[in-house]
Amino acid sequence: MRVQVCIIGGGPSGLLLSQLLHLQGIDTVVLERRSRDYVLGRIRAGVLESGMCDLLRRAGVGERLDAEGFVHNGTRISARGHDFRIDFKKLTDRTVTVYGQTEVTQDLYAARDAMDGKIIEEAEGVTIHEPTSDAPWVTYTKDGTEHRIDCDWIAGCDGFHGVSRQTIPQERRQEFEKVYPFGWLGILSRTPPVDHELIYSNHPRGFALCSMRNANLSRYYVQAPVDDKVEAWSDDRFWDELKRRIPEEAADKLITGPSIEKSIAPLRSFIAEPMRWGRLFLVGDAAHIVPPTGAKGLNLAASDVHYLSRALIALYAGDGDEGVETYSTQALARVWKASRFSWWMTSTLHSFPDQGDFGQRMQEAEIAYLEQSPAAQTALAENYVGLPY
Ligand code: FAD
Ligand code: DHB
């Protein structure tokens, strides 16, 4: 098979890139290691920046997002049992939308199917060949048979554990990493959310977050030791711990119920540079990971897709290769800023093993300053709703 762009990974970045390119007549194929059911079963991000919503609309997948997504004008922040609200709309004139990653992926698969997009699922042993030549190619095995795809460009959208980043020789890439000494235990429950907006809570027992997917589907997280086993956390233990960490008024009205998903995710900041090697581009989690605090992971994947799709569309339209040449620098500039914000949110809201009482009081002072300072609130709000592309 020959295509213009071979996309490795059928998560949100790969599907969105494929959709945006196809709409401009650029031929792509998506190679996904897992089955579609597996990809759609992963519960991940839930908060979309307005820039990502615009990109989804441009990709022709905004209809359900606009009908079913919940626009949030602000968020609540809590410390020492007291909470206050940051009004994104008033401070930045922008908002975020609560719409699950699962829904985004489902919409993208439906759009790709409607356009006869080529998606090869359960593609094993994907290997990139000669990415620094003018004629790169990719091989994979499906049902025991090896296949070859010749292409002009390869987009590595295959997440943190994919093959694309590893294809760049170690001496040609730099990696920056911080691993946090805790994880997030998250549950999904068919219960009404405790509030119409999210609550981010600092507490000496550890961070907690009240989030949601829709009017009868709640997503809650508590900071937990990263090596804890999910089995050690009965639903009752989870709800008790959550209630202890959030404002009393919220704890009193929290409606609990059986969890329908429960998992522990590690927290990590990671950035690989550069995001291009010859004719191979890295996109989304393949190049960078942020800790989830501040909901930037999926949104950063979307901004990478924005820069790369624009560059390739310009190139195939005969408008030059400047976008391709500057993709890595442009994408990384935004990646570093969003990583800084995620690191700051994580550092301010979580309990670190070695922080002591002094560290706890510093966090509380920082949050008290945030409550009183419109300048500090604006800094949080403009990062939360998303820096411009
Ligand atoms: P992915 O979604 O990882 O997609 C990559 C795809 O490539 C996958 O489908 C994978 O199966 C496929 N693949 C991998 N290797 C290969 C291969 N060798 N060949 C072919 N295909 C391959 N972000 C938030 O903002 N909020 C959250 O609450 C949040 N929670 C998260 C929880 C977890 C457990 C994880 C892992 C991430 C979470 N994130 C969250 C981050 C967010 O989900 C990611 O940033 C987002 O999924 C990135 O999209 P992507 O398409 O770049 O990568
Ligand atoms: C969610 C996850 C986040 O990391 C966050 O900051 C807000 C919401 C969520 O899964 O709903």
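^ flavin-adenine dinucleotide complex. The two ends are 34 Å apart (CA to CA). The chain has 13 helices and 20 strands.
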